User: Fold these one by one.
Assistant:
Number 1:
Amino acid sequence: MDLVVNGAEQSLDLDPRTTLLDALREHLGLTGAKKGCDHGQCGACTVLLDGRRVNSCLILAITLSGSEVTTIEGVDHPVQQKFLEHDGFQCGYCTPGQICSAVGMLDEFSQGWPSAVTGSGPPDLSDPEIRERMSGNLCRCGAYPNMVPAIREAAER
Amino acid sequence: MKTFTYRTAAGVADGLEPGATFLGGGTNLVDLMKLGVATPDVLVDVTRLGLDDVAELPGGGLRIGAGVRNSDLAADPRVRGQYPVLSQALLAGASGQLRNMATTAGNLLQRTRCRYFMDATMPCNKHDPGSGCPAVSGDHRNLAILGASPSCIATHPSDMAVALAALDAVVRISGPTGERTVPVTELHRLPGDTPERDTVLEHGELITAVDLPPLEFATRSTYRKVRDRASYAFAVGSVAAALQVTDGTVRDVRLAFGAVAHKPWRASQAEEALRGRPATRESFLAAADAELGAARPLRDNTFKVALIRNLVASVLEGLS
Ligand SMILES: Cc1cc2nc3c(=O)[nH]c(=O)nc-3n(C[C@H](O)[C@H](O)[C@H](O)COP(=O)(O)OP(=O)(O)OC[C@H]3O[C@@H](n4cnc5c(N)ncnc54)[C@H](O)[C@@H]3O)c2cc1C
Ligand code: SF4
Ligand code: FES
Ligand code: FES
């Protein structure tokens, strides 16, 4: 099957059981996306699929023929610098997923997508909005308080 | 994971060979395959059938394609404006990443989160008919209080389905023997003696769309979900409601409960008890009691009865 990963075309010959996460890590050597739970429960495996954030552990790679995937290795976004400035991480295990998720989330926000805490008007990127929209990414180190301002400032730029 | 072959579906009426299963966004099915609970021989991918539009119906209402992603549906301005309960229910479910993959049909047909069901090594009448139900005497804190049977007390975990049940949505189905429609409230079965069957769908029947009939007062509708953490957790109990009040009297109402039964639970008796009554907390509680009289909670989930009762009252107060 063929797909584009971080701008480069890749031709892969995969067992149909291979998830996108395993294809990236084991077949393409892109180990940025992490395997936390392997069941959609933690967000460590988050990548961008055709520009949208998804959990790569629950997607079979074979279904993605013709798609474009961006992993943390292919991300170049102000949110990365802001994570450094605000100490948005401790051990760093969840960080690639947090950053990819934040990039996807900011794009969703700029398209006017609501969240569970959005009222009837247009959403603003308040701290409760950031927390709700990022709730699919867990951090065992609890670095959340520093991620929130990092993401807010990245959005303001 | 057991090995399988993969193909994309060629058309909506193709049906399925024995041992084959449709694949939507995969967020539930792939998970269950990893757990060894789902063991299909063939996966038939239906995400490339072009069923991903939300269209306006001629007489009013919306037709939601089976493949529309939950995130796109929640953000659709027509859904947000005319059926806020549906947008809110979708946004209350799962996470941003999961909603970007999850489809309308896959969400409706997601399987129970009963821990024994999800553990292939445990007995469970749903994944291994006749093996027993360890939940009855075991961990059932989040399982059913309505419509359960001694064979199975599982709950249906979808938030979206609760809103669809309240809105009288209709499921459009296509298969080798033709097309048919089924109201969302009749799509899922009660467990009875055959809990291995979640729904009335026959093997090979494909959901192509879900129709939302027009409902003017659904502009005043909402979804409230109670869960064990602030976000990214399944419901412990939920209520979808739409309410029409004139001069302090309930003119019309739609009510459905989530996480209480093997199906999204349309609270018709509560609705009946409310029409024509004063829109007061007292009537709301009385209506909840009319529905919950049939509740048969178990050792560790009696709290759900009071939880739903209070939710009904506060949700309806909020809407009136
Ligand atoms: C960590 C986690 C948290 C979650 N939290 C919530 C939550 O809070 N609330 C909630 O509601 N949900 C929650 N979910 C569940 C999620 O909403 C479902 O997994 C998702 O909606 C399933 O959609 P899908 O398209 O990925 O389905 P799939 O996994 O692709 O399919 C599910 C089932 O539907 C069948 N199917 C798919 N399409 C069709 C079709 N067109 N016709 C006939 N059959 C079809 C498949 O054969 C399969 O049996 C959560 C999931 C995870 C992993
Ligand atoms: S409640 Fe149903 S799904 Fe859970 S163990 Fe019992 S039979 Fe299985
Ligand atoms: S590894 Fe994919 S969500 Fe945890
Ligand atoms: S920084 Fe350690 S898990 Fe988030």
Number 2:
Amino acid sequence: MLTLECPYCGVKAEETELQAGGEAHLKRYGPGSSDDEFESYLFMRKNPKGVHFERWRHAYGCGKWFLAARCTATLEVFGTYSAQTKEPPADLQAKIKAKRPNWEGYK
Amino acid sequence: MAMRRYSAFAIAKEAMSYHLGWERAWGSPAPKKKYDVIIVGAGGHGLATAYYLGKNYGITNVAIIEKGWLGGGNTGRNTTIIRSNYLQDPSAAIYEKARSLYETMSQDLNYNVMFSPRGLLMLGQTEHEVRGYKRTVYANNLQGVATEWISPAKVKELVPIINIDGPRYPVLGALYQARGGTARHDAVAWGYARACSAMGMDVIQQCEVTGVRTQGGKVVGVDTTKGAIDCDKLGMVVAGHASVLAEQAGFRLPIESLALQAMVSEPIKPCMDVVVMANTVHGYMSQSDKGEMVIGGGTDGYNNYTQRGSFHHIEETVRALIETFPMISRLKQLRQWGGIVDMTGDRSPILSKTPVEGIFVNCGWGTGGFKAIPGSGWAMAELMARGHSPLTEEFSMYRFREGKFIDESVAAGVAH
Ligand SMILES: Cc1cc2nc3c(=O)[nH]c(=O)nc-3n(C[C@H](O)[C@H](O)[C@H](O)COP(=O)(O)OP(=O)(O)OC[C@H]3O[C@@H](n4cnc5c(N)ncnc54)[C@H](O)[C@@H]3O)c2cc1C
Ligand SMILES: [Zn+2]
């Protein structure tokens, strides 16, 4: 059973309390952007077998969106953090790198 | 490998000699240095692609490379539902092609795939669903796919164990495809592997593709755990691992990989001889020849490559079905398992050229590609041999950019 700690209310929430929201840190593109950028924003998703950054909502708790770093090959959770960040926090990235030396880092 | 035909006569003959004369059904060769075509993935779609490359186009210098064992991916993990009652014309074309090829597959392959066109119902349990399915029936009639809308009374007649009165979701009718049904999933993989092997193709198991080699924008070969192998053309047919393979070749796909689970109950006496899907409550059920109730539901919500799913989804599926089939509430569940399905945004597959010359991709069948195996192989072989196929035209990976979706979110409303 997947358990994620909500960075806002501190509750260790199990899966049925949460709603998955797909890839985190998507860069939004609108009018004036290229076809490539718009297609990639709307449809192309990172789908790595390994380290993945995702959006989650504490749906049956505080109701807020937050972000999580997880391994899709083992279901290990590396950590959760606030949604008000442009990219994964440096200490979390370092922690992941220590556990997954072959990880190429956040791109 | 020469193939000895299976027949009643062969069984009788073997019966006289303690069944010691049966040969291996397919070879287990070491890879050659080079092939005309390499197919990555020995699931149903990869094997069927290879089979039709040989059968329809005479291309037999082919290797099918599999990291595990053949049919060990989603092909050996699905609930075997076969139907072609989709909404959009391009879907009807490829799924109905597949369904019609299933009708004669056992004869074509000389391998019993136990195709059982026992009839399939998709229950209408809300007004919206009823409207949606009636629309599908009209579309199917125009497409030449035989489906009809049937009344609740007819549903009850076909499925005596069903509860049509609710309480939450009474059965208001059903979309019925009389020639829909099931087949034995492993047999489909094994039958194709045997036929490919007999045509001189190499089915190479326990061999993982770890890299794709290109030169000047063109594919030249793959790196594998059994060494480098060259090829002129490469078909990527790896379902849940499509994104991983695409990344090795340097492009991206509009795919996300999710876990989908299924389960079977203890075997019981025959009680339901059709397939029933209840998409509003999210569950479906059929009875296997062994008597097990085969049950499936929806996917998990998050990316996952582990072939393990969440327990609460099983609970949800079972809860939904108990409401519609009260008698199953006392059944013990025997086994449960998961597969990694390759989901696209419009719930339709991708059969396409790619940014790399010579690489073709067949993926995105998601929760419902078992039914499509022969049609997909037929079309993919044509695409790889001739560079285009009328059946794959609309399924290009570039349709998302152009906004030309093939929206099947209603037809594929529940996983199957
Ligand atoms: C629980 C469940 C129930 C389902 N129910 C139905 C149903 O009722 N009806 C229906 O029509 N469909 C159903 N499906 C969907 C169906 O199973 C799939 O769409 C279909 O089997 C996909 O076939 P495939 O050949 O594309 O993929 P797979 O059978 O998954 O084959 C892909 C193969 O590629 C191999 N591979 C991956 N990466 C590599 C690599 N790097 N090198 C070498 N080999 C590699 C894998 O090991 C695998 O064997 C269900 C799926 C699941 C999981
Ligand atoms: Zn919270």
